[in-house]
Structure formats: C-alpha cells, structure tokens
Amino acid sequence: MTSSPSDPGTREVRRRLQAAVDGQVISPGEAAYDQARTPFYGGFDRHPLAIVRPRNATEVAQVVTLARETGLELAVRGGGHSVAGHSTIDGGIVCDLSAMKGLELDPERRTAWAEAGLTAGEYAEAAAAHGLATGFGDTGSVGISGITLGGGIGYLVRKHGLTIDDLLAAELVTADGQQVCADPETNTELFWAIRGGGGNFGVATRFQFRLHELPGIVGGMLLLPATAEVVAGFVAEAEAAPEELSTIANVLPAPPLPFVPPEHHGRLVVMAMLCYAGEVEAGQRAVAPFRALATPLADMVRPMPYPGMYPPEDLSFHPTAVSHTMFLDTVDQGVAETIMAALAASDAAMRAVQLRVLGGAMARVPAGATAFAHRRSPIMANLAAFYDGPADRAVRQAWVDDLAAALRQGDDGAYVGFLGDEGEARVRRAYPGATWERLAAVKARYDPTNLFHSNQNIPPAVAGGS
Ligand SMILES: Cc1cc2nc3c(=O)[nH]c(=O)nc-3n(C[C@H](O)[C@H](O)[C@H](O)COP(=O)(O)OP(=O)(O)OC[C@H]3O[C@@H](n4cnc5c(N)ncnc54)[C@H](O)[C@@H]3O)c2cc1C
After folding, report:
1. How far apart are CA 280 and CA 291, in angstroms?
2. Residues 38-66: pLDDT tens digits?
3. What is the pLDDT of residue 10?
4. Closest ligand 1 atom, CA of 144?
5. pLDDT tens per residue across span 147-172
6. Chain-wide mean pLDDT for the chain?
7. Chain centroid to CA 466
8. Probe ligand 1: pick from 136, 149, 162, 357, max atoms within 8 Å of CB?
9. In 81-142, alpha helices (H)
C-alpha cells in the first residue's frame, strides 16, 4: 500500500492521530518524514502512512486502538535497530517511542523505571552518574526496548546475566488498548513471555530494572593481528576469564581508522571489546592474557566509567548488511581456521565474524525461567557482510550461508535480537521446544488477532489446535 499526502485516507488517519495524541504525527510530504521513516539499517525503504511519537502510555493506547479499529498495519519502534527492519512499515503506522525518555532512578533501592524510548547509551550515562549500571548491549544507540524484549546480551552478561535478568517489571499496552503491568506477581505469564519473546505481546511503555553498583570498569578496544591461533586463543582466554570480564571479538579486515597502523589496513584483525566490571588491579590482571596473545596493534583498554564502552556514533550511517546469528560449542584451531579462510576469501567491503563467549551469571538461570531459552549456549557467533545493491546482496548472502553451514555444530538455536527477516523456521529456532508453545499461548491471550506482527512473529495458538 502506498500513500500520498493528499489521499483522503491518509488525511483521515492523520486527523485521527492528531486528535488522539499531543505528540508529533509525521506524514508523507513533511520535511521530517524521510528521516523519521528511516531505521538504523539501510535497505528498508518503506513509506509509512504516518510516524507518530506518543508522549505517554495513554497516547500509546490511543495509537494501538486506532490501528486496531482501522485495520492499518502497525510497527513499533524503540531505538530503530531491528536487524529485520521490523520498526518501519509500508502504508501503516509507526508507533515511535523516541519521545518517551523519562527515567526515574532510585539509587538507594538500586532500581530504575525507564521509559521505552531511551537508548542504552542514554540510560548508561544517567545511571553512571550514581555509580550504577544495568547491562544492555554493545551499542549505545540501540533502544532499551528492543534489546530488553529480546533478552539483552552485553558487556555485563557474564557478571550480571542478560538484561532481562535485571528486569523487575514492565508496563505495556496490549492489543485491546489496555494498560497492564507485568511482574513476578502480576500477569506472570506475560512477564515470562516479554523476557525474550520480543514485541509480540503489546507495546512496552516502561521498564523497571535492577541497577548494579559499578563505579568504573577496565575496558575498551584491543586490536590484535588475526591468525587462527590468536582467534582460538582469544576464545580460550575469554572462557577461562573471571566472570567480571565479558568480551566481544570481531574478526574482520582492519578498517582504515586513524589508530590502525596503515600497513594493517584491510588485513584481518581481531577488533575486541573487553569489559571488566570490578576492581582496577584485578581487571588489569584479567586482560593481561589477551594482550599477550600477540603484539597489539592498538590497546585502548583502560580504567574508565562504564558509558565509555559506548563511544559517540555517526547516526547518519545506515549500513546494508546480511547476517546470520548462531551458537557454537567451541572455537578451536580448526574452527578458527575456517573463519579466517572465509574472511580472506570474501571481497565484501566489510565482512566480520563476531564471537561472544557467554556463560557466567547468564548460564545460571534455568532455561525455562524466561522466554530466552539459550542459557547454556557457550558462544554466540554473528556473521555479517555489507552489500551494495540487490545483485551483490545475493553474493554476500551466499557467503554468509556457506560460512554458517561450515561452522554449524550441535546447537541450532538462534538469538532473536540478531535475527534478520528469515522466516518462521528461524524464529522457531529462537524459541525451541516448549518455549514456542508457551509463547503462542500467551500471544493468544494478549494479542489474539496478531495485531503486533511486525516483529519476529509468534502467531497466537489456535484454541484446541496443536
Ligand atoms: C548495531 C547493533 C548492535 C547490537 N548489539 C546488540 C548487543 O550487543 N546485544 C544484544 O542483545 N543485541 C544487540 N543488537 C540487537 C538489538 O538488541 C535488536 O536489534 C533490538 O531489537 C533493537 O532494539 P531497538 O529498540 O533499537 O529496535 P527497534 O527496531 O525499534 O525494535 C526492534 C523490535 O522490537 C519491537 N519493539 C521495540 N520497542 C518496543 C516496545 N517498546 N514495545 C514492544 N515492542 C517493541 C519492534 O516492534 C521490533 O520488532 C544490536 C543491533 C544492532 C543493529
């Protein structure tokens, strides 16, 4: 469905939205429209009928009700970083929560009520002012909404678990326009489902998180020349490290950044992010084995405040990329050689294999306690390649698929946060076994008509069906 600003249907929807909310309603033809319809990832050139920015939960409820009554498509946007482009939509309404950035910190009780439009970086800055933190992901501009609803694997994952392990309560607007709370005592099945089940069950308007004391970290980027030995060694060290240390190793051709020695531009490197959440001396001891893997090309690991892990970003950058997320049991020398060979064989402008050693606090939560079922998966691998146009996309997709097939081990699960638009079979991989049926039952209760389907969708269970 395409929309024109003068179309009577468009005008009517805009009139109804403007009557319903005090927040911004941005329509085709307006100066702000192109920027407002653009999510983080390029390649999703969609034209919503309107982007509406509600200012509170009541306005969110009005938007949900209007979408339900008109039958218009509805996309919900927190920070706009959906890998699958789910937070923008052709011909429908984008409910963009970016105007809802309220944050009530209670440093004494170490809890925070955070509105759904905050980003991880904004939250981290505000919490760090009190020497506190909640773990989100590796990127400051990612929305707290999408990452929390998917699980949340970040720099504190081994020390404090997933983001959802610090989620104490949430407020949502469900498909019938009701505002509900979900916590361990209220709407308990809903509370179970939103901890990993994504945006399937309603629009989250506020989250309550536990905060941890974190006056500072030892962290930052360590750049090592990549060889199979270094890659396998890095993973082994990350597995052996104390739980205070969480790491992300990106194996990729070195970009021509100022801190990369020119002779290494384009050569394979391990661009690693390390974050030790504890005392400085112990942190320096914990990162020493990584520094010893090879002579670092750049070493920016140092004591700093936690938000230092979220450097400023270029928000006008909208990469087009194909990707595949998977779990691995091991990255030994042979696996590392496969990774190195594949990266060397590709000529994509950027291609990368990201390795995240998990475990620690995340793995101590029982698999069925939340809708994130991959507690015991020891390593997450994300494969990605940039593409330039449809023909190139096919080439890069084939590369990603071939590498994924070569790397596949026993674990065929997937983390929903990094899934692209890959179809139901892959969504089911995110929710293995009984998780899928339980989510489908919660969906049937809170969104029986599947109003919220611009997401990694879990169709509602059919009564009496399988
Ligand atoms: C550069 C980059 C880095 C990333 N790093 C990490 C990482 O380190 N760890 C990690 O775990 N994940 C990471 N991710 C994945 C990320 O967590 C997911 O893409 C997440 O969904 C993004 O959240 P968002 O609010 O920014 O996205 P959006 O595109 O706004 O939303 C994503 C999905 O969530 C739904 N949604 C968003 N807000 C709400 C809401 N308030 N209520 C109901 N549904 C909602 C949307 O409808 C959509 O389906 C990264 C992604 C990118 C692009």
Report:
1. 16
2. 999 999 999 999 999 999 999 999 999 99
3. 77
4. 25
5. 999 999 999 999 999 999 999 999 99
6. 96
7. 31
8. 149
9. 120-128
How many Cβ atoms are within 10 Å of 154's Cβ, its own excluded?
A: 23
∠ CA 303-310-153, rounded to 5° = 100
SS3 191: helix
- pTM of this prediction? 0.97
Strand partners, 206: 115, 171
CA of 455 to the centre of ligand 1 (A): 10
- Ligand 1 atom at minimal distance to the Cα of residue 138: 8
> What is the structure's pLDDT at 1?
44
Q: Whose CA is nearest to atom 44 of ligand 1?
A: 199
pLDDT at residue number 466: 44
pLDDT value at position 4? 60
**Separation of 81 CA from ligand 1 center, angstroms?**
5
Distance 372 CA to ligand 1 centre (A): 15
State yes or no: pLDDT of 336 exceeds 50.
yes
Rounded CA separation 169/81 (Å): 23
Q: What angle do CA 164, 381, 396 make, to 5 degrees?
A: 125
Task: Count helices and strands (H / E) in the chain.
Answer: 13, 19
Using the mean position of ligand 1's atoms as its centre, give its distance from the Cα of residue 150 in Å: 7
Cα–Cα dist 404/256, whole Å: 27
Query: 9 falls in which pLDDT band (50, 70, 90)?
Result: confident
Distances (CA, A) of 29 to 12, 72, 248, 342, 416: 15, 20, 42, 45, 35
* Residue 218, helix vs strand vs coil: strand
Q: Whose CA is nearest to atom 46 of ligand 1?
A: 76
> Could you tell me which of 383, 441, 101, 405 has the C-alpha nearest to residue 252?
383
Inter-residue contact 425 to 175 (CB < 8 Å): no
Closest CA to 115 of 64, 79, 154: 79
| CA 95–ligand 1 middle distance (angstroms) | 14
- Which SS3 state, helix, strand or coil, does residue 125 take? helix
What is the end-to-end Cα distance of the chain in Å, rounded? Answer: 33
CA atoms within 13 A on the CB side of 287: 29
User: Ligand 1: which residues within 6 Å by Cβ?
Assistant: 39-40, 75-83, 86-87, 97, 116, 137-139, 142-143, 145-147, 149-154, 198-199, 203-204, 417-418, 454-455
Protein residue with least CA distance to atom 9, ligand 1: 137
Nearest-10 crossing angle of helices 333-345, 390-407: 170
Instruction: Tell me the HSE value of 25 on the side-chain side, using a 13 A CA sphere.
Output: 22
- The amino acid present at 324, given as its one-letter code, is H
- pLDDT tens digits, one per residue of 180-210: 999 999 999 999 999 999 999 999 999 999 9
